[in-house]
Structure formats: C-alpha cells, structure tokens
Amino acid sequence: GEALEVNREVNCVTDFIHGCEDQLQKLKKKKEKGLLYGIPISIKDHINCKGHISSGGMVKFLGQVKEEDSVIVQVLKHQGGIPFVKTNIPQTMINYDCSNLIFGQTLNPLNPQKSPGGSSGGEGALIAGGGSILGIGSDVAGSIRLPSSFCGLCGLKPTGNRIRYIPTSPGCSDRPFVLAVTGMLGPMARDVDSLALCMKALLCQEMFQLDPTVPPIPFDEQVRLRGTPMSPSAQQSP
C-alpha cells in the first residue's frame, strides 16, 4: 500500500512482483527463518526476476520475460526476503537522472522538482518516500551512491566481485567500460545497520554455492563494529 502511494506521487515502480504473497505463506511454514525473514525488498529494474522483464528502460527488451531469478534474488528469497517490486531506471542506465520513454520520469520525494539521481533512482525515490525499507541497486560510477545522496539514504557499492553481478541485457550500462571499474550490486536503505544486515545475509553459503566465482568470505561483523579506521600511526604501533 505504501509503495503504491509513493509511486503515485513520484513514479518510481515499474512492476509488482507477483507471487510475493505466496512466498510469505511458504516462509511461515519453514522451520529455519532467514536473516531477512518477512522483509519486503525492492529490486532495480535490470535485475532478473522470474516472470518479469528487465527493460533497462529500452523498448527492445519489453518482450523478453525472464525465465529464472538472478542469483541475488534467489539468495534474498533463501534468507526469507520478499522481493515485491521492480523500480525505475534511466534509459540504458548511463545517466545521473531517472527517466525513460517507457515508464517516464521519477521524481525526488523530498522535493518533486528535483531528480532522485541515478541510475538506481527508482530505488532511491521509493525508499526515501517510505515505500520500501531495503532495496537492491547497482553501481559502476555512482548509480547507488548518487541516488542515496540525492534522497538522503545510505547505500553501499561493495568491493568488485564481492556479490554475483552479471548485466542482464546487452547494451545496458552498469557494466564495466574499463575493467578497472567493476559494476556491482549493492543494498540501499535508510540506515547503515540495514546495509550491514543485507550484506551479512547475502554473503552466505547459498551465494557461494550458486556462484563459485564469488570468494566464499562471510561478512565480518567485527570489522564493521570497530568503527572509524585507525590512523596510519596507530596501525604502525606494536
């Protein structure tokens, strides 16, 4: 309901993911509750969800319904998360704004005269507007960080190859133009604790089994809790 309300105001949702209610009923019957149990999660347009398109804001991809969930969506579901909407992006995703000729312009919920940023602009607008508490965006050159900044949110571009990432459609951006700049999927939310929980949930055995190219290194809670990095002089002390 909240997502619909926010969408009416800022035009940030491109699709509702059918079957999310059924998934919740299945989760209730499972003995083991995942780290993201029952949390509705919004998903950037170009991330594959079974039975839905990944348009990249381009008409030529509108007829291509995806046959299976991407690895990240499978892992989110394994951890009890419920992907429930797909969110808007700029055409080809090579843009710091968020509009395309299919779904139109997404507005910033903090100020509808402003842009939410891009390319994960639908995510930024939906979360900032109160329609989602956790979302998955992607970032090569700021596509998570810019909308997070524009919309007053927290976002993380993880280290390259930390999470499974394969661009879904040829011609879509958020793929590395230079090998030194790696496109990455990452979480967006209203606080750092939510980002940390999402990373902890994603970096699990299921992820490492589904994609053997991801280094099997779990999330290190102790590193996060240490707070600010030590100064060089403190690091050198015995």
UniProtKB/TrEMBL annotation:
| Single GO molecular function | amidase activity
Q: Where is the Amidase domain?
A: 5-216
Is Transmembrane among this UniProt entry's keywords? no
Keywords, alphabetical: Hydrolase
Stored SUPFAM superfamilies: Amidase signature (AS) enzymes
- What Pfam family is a match for this entry? Amidase
Q: Which residues form the signal peptide?
A: none
Q: Which InterPro entries match?
A: Amidase_CS (IPR020556), Amidase_dom (IPR023631), AS_sf (IPR036928), Endocannabinoid_amidase (IPR052096)
Q: Name one GO biological process term.
A: fatty acid catabolic process
Record carries keyword Hydrolase: yes
Q: Which PANTHER family match?
A: FATTY ACID AMIDE HYDROLASE, FATTY ACID AMIDE HYDROLASE-RELATED
Family, as annotated: Belongs to the amidase family.
Q: What is this protein called?
A: VDHAP protein
Q: Which organism is it from?
A: Pomatorhinus ruficollis (streak-breasted scimitar babbler)
